[in-house]
Design brief:
binds iron/sulfur cluster; binds flavin mononucleotide; five-stranded parallel beta sheet; alpha/beta; two-stranded parallel sheet; Alpha-Beta Plaits; 2 domains
Length: 262
């Protein structure tokens, strides 16, 4: 069973590859969240392997993953292996510790955790932008072999450390991540420009229902529910979404194989 969350397709791409490699079904955390289903109960088989695949947001797990785990009930869990695989632009800090703690609080033990560096999608602060094209291409070229190493480590239980903590993890994960969750999320400055053609894709794809739209009008962003997955701004086919002034000169990115918000 593969629980995944993805804003711009990187984590979804990884989740699909893992689904093929381990023959486990995919479950979208965004779909479950959108359905408003609070109690999420899943029945496990004795031989089942459980994966959480998601992006690193501000050196911690994307917050919807935490909310999903808080409501999660794994029936017939008897210690089946549970893996965390996060995708990041550069480094993950203590993301693995935090998801491990959330799972422990539900009586679930994390068997292993891995990270995969993929193209960066964070563009909402000064100094942060998508990767230059050559860096993006290099990262995408390297992903299959890095993922193959993770699959091998899981299959052969090698215990090989394939997780990139990076620098100053205490500062980033223990101090900045809580500030991000408290202050950066839920207040947003998104808006649609005149380039918008009212196709409705952003409203349809937003995992939190933050974007509302009346037919033929511009979309609107509610103030209190955005989780900054950035799917809307990166997938808009008309490049018609901006975030205050900060995004105007920034690039846009989504995984080349995942062509629309999922
Ligand atoms: C709000 C936000 C915060 C991010 N913070 C980090 C970070 O702390 N470290 C990092 O390496 N990448 C960070 N990134 C980049 C993403 O983790 C990376 O691009 C990821 O692969 C995106 O996955 P997705 O396409 O499945 O959404 C951040 C992205 C967003 C949107
Ligand atoms: S995806 Fe872009 S073009 Fe389509 S409604 Fe949203 S802002 Fe407008
Ligand atoms: S408004 Fe945009 S960034 Fe916020 S949760 Fe929805 S799709 Fe993600």
């Amino acid at each position: 069973m593969i629980f995944y969350f993805s804003g711009t397709g990187n984590s979804l791409w990884v989740a699909r590859e893992l689904s093929k490699a381990f023959n486990e079904p995919l479950i979208s955390i965004a779909e479950v969240t959108k359905s408003g289903n609070n109690a999420t109960v899943y029945f496990l088989q004795p031989t089942e392997q459980i994966f959480f695949v998601y992006p690193v947001h501000s050196w911690g797990p994307a917050v919807l993953v935490g909310e999903f785990i808080r409501h999660l009930e794994l029936k017939a869990y008897t210690g089946q292996p549970v893996y965390s695989i996060c995708t990041c632009g550069d480094e993950c800090g203590y993301t693995e510790n935090r998801i491990g703690k959330w799972l422990r609080q539900k009586g679930i033990t994390l068997t292993g955790s891995y990270s995969l560096q993929m193209p960066n999608n964070y563009i909402l602060l000064p100094g942060f932008d998508v990767d230059p094209q050559e860096v993006e291409e290099k990262k995408l070229q390297e992903v299959p072999s890095r993922l193959a190493a993770i699959v091998q480590a899981i299959r052969e239980t090698t215990g090989q450390p394939l997780y990139h903590t990076g620098s100053l993890p205490f500062l980033k994960s223990r101090m900045i991540y809580p500030l991000f969750v408290r202050y950066a999320l839920k207040r947003n400055s998104f808006y649609a420009t005149d380039a918008c053609v009212s196709c409705g894709l952003c409203a349809k794809g937003c995992p939190t229902g933050t974007i509302t739209m009346e037919k033929g009008k511009l979309p609107k962003w509610e103030k209190d529910s955005c989780v900054q997955c950035l799917a809307c701004i990166h997938y808009c086919p008309e490049r018609a979404i901006e975030y205050g002034n900060i995004s105007k000169k920034k690039g846009r990115y989504h995984h080349p194989d995942i062509r629309s918000i999922k």
